Amino acid sequence: MSEKSKLGSLRCEPLLARIDPLMRSESGVACNIPTSNNSDDLLLDAPLFTRLTSDANLSKLAKRQLLSELDRFGIAWLGDALPPVDRNPKEPQPGSLERLKRIATLQQDQPIDVESFQGAAAIELQLVGRPFQVLANSRRSRWTPGLPVEITDFEQVAKRVEVLRVLSERKLPIGAAVAPGAVYEDLRFLIDSGFDFLTLLVDVQFGMAAGSSLQLASLDLTLEQSAKAVHDSGTKTKLLVSANLLDGVSMYRCLQLGASAISIDGFLAKAKPQEVATAKDTFGSVLSSYVPAASVSTMAWAGQAIAGLVEELQDCAEYSGETSA
């Protein structure tokens, strides 16, 4: 059974809500993650993010090319900032990568480094892993739920969130990524600790190949319990979902069930063209090696795929009758 059939069909507004379509607001799919000061929110033009830049072991070149393709869509990405020396000096729009919405990461066993937050749009604690061990992302034990190593009682988690707020001058949303184990209990605890958003690692994509993914939990059950945890807490904590959703309809249905943003990792892995086999050497191919080749991004396909996905999400919003605030 596909994830689309598990999530069900799109929920639509009734006809009486569509009596005067000319007076209704335009349909929209933007995502807004508020901060504690309610003035420096993280606004995503499309409710999409990627963890491939952190989890897929991309080369620096591939990472830069992917981010260049995602630039115009306002998609958030996870990981460390690109060093200045690694940026392409021939980029048509110099400095465009700095405008991308980067979510800085903080691992369980990693000390707080204020410099790593520079230029970031948000901070996310990675509440998964085995402290002081380097495990392959393809291993399930790599995603074991856990708290930072210095935490000895539950009150210290809220204190850590407050420290991060102070160090970021209360200008960045503070979130946490967690593998959905004891979903309701874990989320109530993290929500009460003061996080602005929580990323649910239902599926993790540890490579760019379609089969390079690991399912950690059931999507429909995780969404149900997570939405209940947020509702019962009486807060506006945002839920980001990393799940193996492969089209705009299933992603939009996930948004309707309580998610605020969806990862595009599984979608990109599926959309990636198959590698073309290297042609055998010929006399002509040997001569052509002396001719400078034009610089072509190997990630150009990603921008085309995302453009279609964003359009499909907008169509789903229009069809369902839901409007932007």
Q: Any descriptors?
A:
eight-stranded parallel β-barrel; alpha/beta; 14% strand; 31% helix
Short recap of the structure:
With 325 residues, the protein is of the alpha/beta class. The chain has helices spanning 3-7, 52-55, 60-70, 155-167, 183-192, 219-233, 248-256, 265-271, 283-288, 300-320; strands at 31-33, 42-44, 48-50, 76-78, 102-106, 122-126, 174-178, 197-201, 203-205, 213-215, 238-242, 261-263.
Describe this structure in words.
The protein is α/β, with parallel strands linked by helices. It is 31% helix and 14% strand. It contains ten helices and twelve strands. It has helices spanning 3-7, 52-55, 60-70, 155-167, 183-192, 219-233, 248-256, 265-271, 283-288, 300-320; strands spanning 31-33, 42-44, 48-50, 76-78, 102-106, 122-126, 174-178, 197-201, 203-205, 213-215, 238-242, 261-263. The strands form three sheets. It has an eight-stranded parallel β-barrel, surrounded by five helices. A two-stranded antiparallel ribbon has the order 1-2. The protein has a two-stranded antiparallel ribbon with strand order 9-10. Strand 6, helix 4 and strand 7 form a beta-alpha-beta unit. Helix 3 (60-70) packs parallel to helix 10 and helix 7 (248-256) packs across helix 10 (300-320). The longest helix has 21 residues, at 300-320. The protein is globular, with a radius of gyration of 21 Å. The protein starts with a helix and ends in a 5-residue tail after the last helix.
The largest sheet is: 8 strands, parallel, barrel
Proportion in helices:
25-40%
Mean pLDDT: 86
Poorly predicted runs: 291-295
Main β-sheet, spatial strand arrangement: 3-4-5-6-7-8-11-12
Distance between the termini: 34 Å
Overall structural class, as computed from helix and strand content, comes to alpha/beta
CA-based gyration radius: 21 Å
Element string (H = helix, E = strand):
HEEEHHEEEHEHEEEHEHEHHH
Q: What percentage of amino acids are in beta strands? A: 5-15%
Number of strands: 12
- Helix run count: 10
Regarding quaternary structure, what we see is single chain
